[in-house]
Amino acid sequence: MNASVLLWNEGIAMKLLPNNLILIVYMIIGFCGNGFVIFTYLCSKLWQEEERYFIPYLSAADLFACLVCASFGIILNLNQVTFDDSVLCKTWWFFAGFTTLLSTFYLVVIAFQRLRKLCPSERNVAMDLSRRRLTVIFLAAGSLFLSLPMPYFYGSVPFSDVRRNLTGQRCSRLYDVNRTFSLIVFRKPINHYMHLRKCFA
Predict the structure, then answer these.
(1) CB 20 within 8 A of CB 77
(2) Can you list the residues of the chain whose pLDDT is less than 70?
(3) What is the DSSP string of 97-165?
(4) How crowded is the C-beta side of 24, counted as CA atoms within 13 Å?
(5) Phi and psi (nearest 5°) for 150?
(6) Which positions are tagged coiled coil (predicted)?
(7) What share of the chain is helix, strand, coil (3-state, %, to 5)?
(8) How far apart are CA 196 and CA 193, in angstroms?
């Protein structure tokens, strides 16, 4: 790697240091908070109730999304112009998409359960254990299916600075794919996830 590119990357990384500190705090809080929720629900067996069944699953999905997305963000901040591992980039985007989608889907299911409780109707039928388990499998499969295109759209791409006359590599959307279609499929999983979390907060 060119020494000038390394110095360029170091300068960018220093500017992004506050963001990295926030991501580290976010990762610690997310891990401890969601881990405590999972431990509490499993030990007290609250998850066996229909309306609380999906909460440990949501916490688990949140925990992994927190670890994957935060660590991904930190690595990106530290390698803004030196990320030349396309396979790792594709893999990270896939898992970021999968964990984010899975967490989002669990939020939707729990919100739907709360809506049914607030607006009771004769047509509302309680979900038995087999249906709940089937829902868990269906959500995981749906998240996996929707995340499969991620490696196709993202990878290590050239990144240039005209002023410095330098060219590096960054993990970003590939230039040779359909930009419109990539935006429709999944633009920024971290931002979408955080926006949805704010809506339900």
Answers:
(1) yes
(2) 1, 45-50, 120-126, 177-201
(3) HHHHHHHHHHHHHHHHHHHHHHS--TT-----HHHHHHHHHHHHHHHHHHHTTHHHHEEEEEEEETTTT
(4) 8
(5) -55, -45
(6) none
(7) 75, 10, 20
(8) 5
Do the Cβ atoms of 188 and 153 come closer than 8 Å?
no
Summarised one tens digit per residue, pLDDT across range 15-67 is 999 999 999 999 999 999 999 988 888 787 666 666 788 888 999 999 999 99
Coil/strand/helix, residue 171: strand
Indicate the domain borders of the chain: 3-200
CA 105 to chain centre: 12
Phi, psi of 168 (to 5 degrees): -120, -170
Q: Are 61 and 99 spatial neighbours (Cβ–Cβ below 8 Å)?
A: yes
pTM of the predicted model as reported, rounded to 2 decimal places: 0.79
Please state, in angstroms and rounded to a whole number, the distance separating the CA atoms of residues 182 and 164.
31
CATH 2.30.40.10 at 3-200, yes or no: no
